[in-house]
């Protein structure tokens, strides 16, 4: 059985903590970016998450919980705090060129579909964005999402269901607009 | 089941999160209800589009290299004196240089504050606006690999992180072992108990299970992915009751190893007037993946992006060495001239293929309302 993570950072070893940061920074940053919708906010959240991880490192017990779930939970909380302080940021599509992002695993939706979905996502509130990002970007199961977000399983189900319906409503509205 | 009930469960169904009973009822309803079938296709297209849009968006950004330095500075400025010393103690030079008396003081401070093993500190909940659960629940390992015959040890841990007693019911929970993508087939079931357990604040309850890799008849199971779940655990605090089925995914590996190769192919099969082309297969140490392309009758690329017609529900199975397994449902992408199907994306993986396999047969049994089979024999030389 594989056990790939060293927990020396928990006893205050800064080099081990930097290794942990390097290993998980992209995961935290990309989730924060998708939830907050802005690179600057995502960088701030990344900082806050790891300062918080360091501050509560002695409370994390690897035998009691999954490190990734714990990181997701802190990331979500930091994003929620941040979004509460600011009004919703509408996200520009700066620098996005889908033609450069196609790979065997990640193929082919049109730029128009992409823009419409991202725009629709941006219209959702944070609690719905969070569960959709955890499910459809991270591929977490509903139960893993419940643990990461700290809500009951039933709430995850209803938020995913409602979030998808809101997206559908937004897409329908966009389509009606486009058709004049 | 009525349309309204089905509608509430469609996302669960498509995400593989519906119970067996719900799946049967939903599928029975879908057979007779065109409106719900249409709703399901639209929902599937939104889920699929969302996966791609989020993935493409995240692929465009990287954190700046300066973030670590900022984190380090904030930590250093916040650290109280004894924590800085604690950090230094971990470096070999300081271990030698610091007088023993100082180390003893630091060790005393660390023990009292819960840094060292054996000390106990209640687990604080990360502050935030989302109301925390009164407990933490995890199943370990989340995912692990074993050789045939090796004992598979799994457990769940439930810790009361609230300030009030919580009640766990039943204890121990029933345990079920199922094939990775064949959710309805229970290979082994171990009955649970009927005990109700009260858990005090800060206490942890564990249930362990060692699977000998045998099914209910006592036969060693074949290599592949399996899910082991603790069933219908219920936690109650006051008037609130929350149910969970914590589970783990384990891969029983081939003793001879897995084949790790990719093949670009161009095989086509036609059934019911629909031609499907197998383009590529990727065989990996822990899974395998199959890419297909087809053009539905009258297909035109959706002119205004996601529309109600672009949804695909395709099912398949595959055989290696005479053993047939379910491949579940495909992920799909719409393109200008047709639709690409991919088995398998998402948390469930297809099994790897043994290194000495000579052929795989992959059979698509159904694409939307069109029945197959589209059968592909793939030589592995």
Give the arrangement of secondary structure elements.
The complex is a heterodimer of chains A (180) and B (381).
Chain A lengths: L13 H23 L2 H17 L11 H19 L25 H12 L3 H11 L5 H8 L3 H27 L1
Helix pairs in contact in A: 1-2, 1-3, 1-5, 2-3, 3-5, 3-6, 4-7, 5-7, 6-7
Chain B lengths: L2 H12 L5 H13 L1 H26 L7 H12 L2 H9 L2 H6 L2 H14 L21 E6 L2 E4 L5 E9 L5 E6 L2 E6 L8 E3 L4 E5 L4 E8 L12 E8 L1 E5 L2 E5 L2 E6 L8 E11 L2 E10 L4 E7 L19 E7 L2 E7 L1 E5 L2 E6 L15 E9 L2 E10 L2
Parallel strand pairs in B: 2-12
Antiparallel strand pairs in B: 1-3, 3-8, 4-7, 4-10, 5-6, 5-9, 9-12, 10-11, 13-14, 14-15, 15-19, 16-17, 16-20, 18-19, 20-21
Would you mind describing this structure in some detail?
- The complex is a heterodimer of chains A (180) and B (381).
- Chain A has helices spanning 14-36, 39-55, 67-85, 111-122, 126-136, 142-149, 153-179.
- Chain A is globular and about 60 Å long.
- Chain A has 180 residues and is an all-alpha fold.
- In chain A, 65% of the residues lie in helices and 0% in strands.
- Chain A has two domains: 1-89, Rna Polymerase Sigma Factor, Chain: A (Orthogonal Bundle); 93-180, Winged helix-like DNA-binding domain superfamily/Winged helix DNA-binding domain (Arc Repressor Mutant, subunit A).
- In chain A, helix 6 packs across helix 7 (153-179).
- Mean pLDDT of chain A is 76; it is low at 1-5 and 87-109.
- Chain B has 381 residues and is of the alpha+beta class.
- Chain B has four domains: 3-59, Arc Repressor Mutant, subunit A (Orthogonal Bundle); 67-113, no CATH class; 135-252, Immunoglobulins (Immunoglobulin-like, Sandwich), CATH 2.60.40; 261-379, Immunoglobulin-like (Sandwich), CATH 2.60.40.
- Chain B is 24% helix and 38% strand.
- Chain B has seven helices and 21 strands.
- Chain B has helices at 3-14, 20-32, 34-59, 67-78, 81-89, 92-97, 100-113, and strands at residues 135-140, 143-146, 152-160, 166-171, 174-179, 188-190, 195-199, 204-211, 224-231, 233-237, 240-244, 247-252, 261-271, 274-283, 288-294, 314-320, 323-329, 331-335, 338-343, 359-367, 370-379.
- In chain B, the strands form five sheets. Chain B has a five-stranded mixed β-sheet with strand order 2-12-9-5-6, with no helix packed on it. A five-stranded antiparallel β-sheet of chain B has the order 13-14-15-19-18.
- Residues 79-131 and 304-309 of chain B have low confidence and may be disordered.
